[in-house]
Structure formats: C-alpha cells, structure tokens
Specification:
By secondary structure, the chain is of the alpha+beta class. The chain folds into four domains: about 200 residues, Beta-Lactamase; about 50 residues, no CATH class; about 100 residues, PAS domain (Beta-Lactamase), CATH 3.30.450; about 35 residues, no CATH class. Strands 2-1-5-4-3 form a five-stranded antiparallel β-sheet. Helix 2 crosses helix 5. The radius of gyration is 35 Å and the shape is elongated.
C-alpha cells in the first residue's frame, strides 16, 4: 500500500520534479540515458516524418502542375518544377507525359542514368540505399496525364540515425543495470504519454480526428493530453461541417441541370458547371479562362446586353430573367433565361455568378402557339360564313 501511495504521489508530480527525483537516485546515468533515448526516438520520428513530408511535397507539386500539363503548358510546368531546387537534398526531378516523354526536369542526365536501373519503380516512396525515390502519378479530371518522379538524398538523415543508434546502444549497455528499475517508471510516466501524443499528432496529420489520448494524471502531460483531446474534438467538428458543406455544394453543382458559371468584370469565365457538356457540348475546361465573346457560346448580338447585365450585378443589382441565344458546339442555337448575382468576398463584389436555364422548348411551344393563333385568325377572316365568338357569359368578343 505504501509503495502504491508513493507511486501515485510521484505520478502527479511535475515532469521537472520527476526528472529531478530520478536524477537524484540514478545520478548522472539516468540523465544520459533519458537524453539518448529521446534523441534516438526523435530521430526515428524524423525519418518517418521525412517520408510523409516527401510524399506530401511531391503530391502538392504534382497537383500544382496538373492543370498546366493538361493544357500542354510545358514552360509553366518546368518553372514550377524548378521550385524544387530549393530543397538541398534534391538530386533530380522529372516529369513524364502519358506517352513516356520527358516534358520537364531538374538534373535530367542524372535522372535518366538512375532510372535505367529502376524499370519497375512503383508509385509512392521507394528507398534505395542512401536515397529515396518518390513517384507520383499526375491525374486531372479522372485522367492520368503522366508521372512526376523525384529523387532525394537521405545521407544526412541516415548518418544522423546511425550515429544516434550507436551512441544510444553504447550508453544503454553501460547503464542498463542501474536504470532497469527507473526505466519502467520513467517510461510509463513520461515516455508512453509523449509517444501517444506523437502518435496522435501524426494521426491527426493524416486526417484521423477521432484519435483521443488517455488522461491518467494531473501533471503537465495530463493537462496537455486533455487539451489535445479538446482540440481534436473541435477539429473533428469543424472538418465534419466543412466536408458536409462541400459535399452538398459539389452534389448540387455537379448534378444541376442549369448552366452555372462565374465571370469576372472583364467577362472572363472563372468556373463552369459540368452541365456545359450536356447543354452546349463543351467541356468546362474549354471555356474556363476565356471571355464570353471568345468562347462564342453567346450570339454576338447579345454580348453587349450580357456585359450590361454583368455591370449591373457588379453594382449590386440582381437580374433574374434575361434572355439570350446560346450557340452550342455543333452550331445549334438555344434560348437561355439567365439570372445574375454578385459574388461577394471580404465585403467586395469580385465576380458575378450566372445561372442560365434552357428555355428552348418553352420558346418553341410559344412560337407554335403564335403560329396556330395566326392560322386560326386567317381561317376566321377568310371564311365566307358568319363566325361569331362569345365568352362564357354570352358576350360577343369577336365577329369576322
């Protein structure tokens, strides 16, 4: 009971006092061991995080060049790949298109030489002695456009890890007899919570916001664990709300039958809903970045009216039923009813959101009704018989 009471008292001491008490009992050896243990553990974490960071950096690089690669803007692809030179461990970076042709590279000769022996290089992170290959497919709108391969040197990390392991092994073998009793105590009260904290932080970084830490004490680690749990709960709530909002928006945007697009004050299209393919025969990427006039989707006679309505929306006016004639890829002309709404960011109108609804069938029906009415009028007026039309009350409303 006394031992358990002492253990409980020691568990609730501050980390500083725990270290001081351990140092007083184990003398200099305990401090050396703890220092080396944490150094070794930290280096292992650095090696792991380096792998994760490499995948994230290369994945981000692939994401930044995919639009330019899709547009075959190879000069911009090269410019963005050149930004990787800032990484001092970079040995080479190379971009292939889907035909296996090199479209951009950093240190291309070295890349070709090394990749001769990597015919089966898999996507992801591959270790090869003192270097690592990161291969990332470049995908855009569901299609694979090519591949980005980056090679980085791990010499400095491996050397640091090897030195740490050697020093830790030597120190551990020299002090293991004196530290065996205190290792369980220190490892349980300090190392395990910190390891759990590191593991939880890595899981949070990977998107697992449901990770929680056990709170078993009232010291700094216990308070930190409680604060970490509270942060995780808030992050999980925020991310859940964002994902739900984004899902609802994408579901509506991608499945709406109307044409939804945003234009800047100069009539440049900045976004276009997928319904452009069904309604006009164009892929959204073919229209984005061009002005309304340059796309040719609106008849020339209507461009000035469209521009006037955009200016009205930029000044805060909401226009709900402007009619235009749109021209599809195959030359077919269609009637669209368009509404204009200002897009406000940071209390400033920066663009206009347009929603165009296909009313071609409605216009065709109205035209047929007008033609039928005109035909009926001609029949009535040309008839040799007397024709009298009355309403429901018997009042004469028309006589030929």
């Amino acid at each position: 009971m006394e031992i358990r009471s002492m253990f409980g008292f020691f568990k609730n001491l501050s980390i500083r006092k725990k270290l001081l008490a351990a140092t007083a009992v184990a003398a200099v050896g305990i401090g050396i061991f703890i220092t080396l243990f944490f150094a070794y553990h930290l280096q292992q974490q650095i090696l792991y995080i380096t792998r994760q960071a490499s995948l994230q950096v290369v994945g981000l690089a692939a994401a930044t060049i995919r639009a330019d690669l899709a547009a075959k803007n190879f000069a911009e692809v090269q410019k963005k790949i050149d930004d990787l030179r800032r990484n001092r461990t970079l040995q080479f970076a190379i971009v292939y298109d889907n035909k296996g042709q090199i479209v951009a590279a950093v240190n291309a000769p070295l890349a070709e030489k090394m990749l001769e022996h990597q015919n089966t290089l898999a996507d992801g992170f591959t270790l090869d002695q003192d270097r690592a290959f990161i291969s990332m497919p470049i995908q855009y709108r569901g299609a694979t456009l090519g591949k980005l391969i980056v090679c980085v040197s791990l010499i400095h990390i491996l050397h640091m890890v090897q030195q740490t392991v050697l020093v830790a092994a030597g120190a551990s073998s020299a002090t293991i007899a004196a530290l065996i009793l205190f290792f369980a105590l220190i490892g349980t009260l300090i190392t395990r919570p910190l390891n759990q904290l590191i593991d939880a932080a890595l899981q949070i970084a990977r998107g697992n916001f449901s990770r929680r830490l056990p709170v078993t004490s009232r010291d700094e680690v216990g308070r930190l664990s409680a604060a970490f749990n509270e942060m995780s709960e808030r992050l999980q709530l925020i991310v859940s709300q964002l994902e739900r909002s984004e899902h609802n928006y994408r579901l509506h945007f991608e499945n709406v039958s109307d044409l939804i697009y945003a234009v800047q004050p100069d009539l440049t299209i900045t976004s276009m809903s997928p319904s452009a393919t069904t309604l006009l025969g164009y892929q959204p990427s073919e229209l984005i970045g061009k002005t309304i006039a340059a796309t040719g989707i609106i008849a020339t006679d209507y461009i000035s009216d469209f521009e006037q309505h955009v200016r009205g929306a930029l000044s805060g006016e909401r226009i709900t039923a402007a009619e235009y004639i749109f021209t599809s890829r195959d030359g077919t002309q269609k009637f669209f009813e368009t509404s204009f709404s200002p897009l406000v960011e940071e209390n400033q109108v920066c663009a206009v959101v347009c929603v165009s609804r296909d009313i071609t069938d409605r216009q065709r029906t109205l035209q047929e009704l007008r033609e039928a009415r005109d035909s009926l009028d001609n029949i009535i007026e040309s008839s040799q018989d007397a024709i009298v039309a009355c309403d429901s009350t018997g009042r004469i409303v028309r006589v030929n």
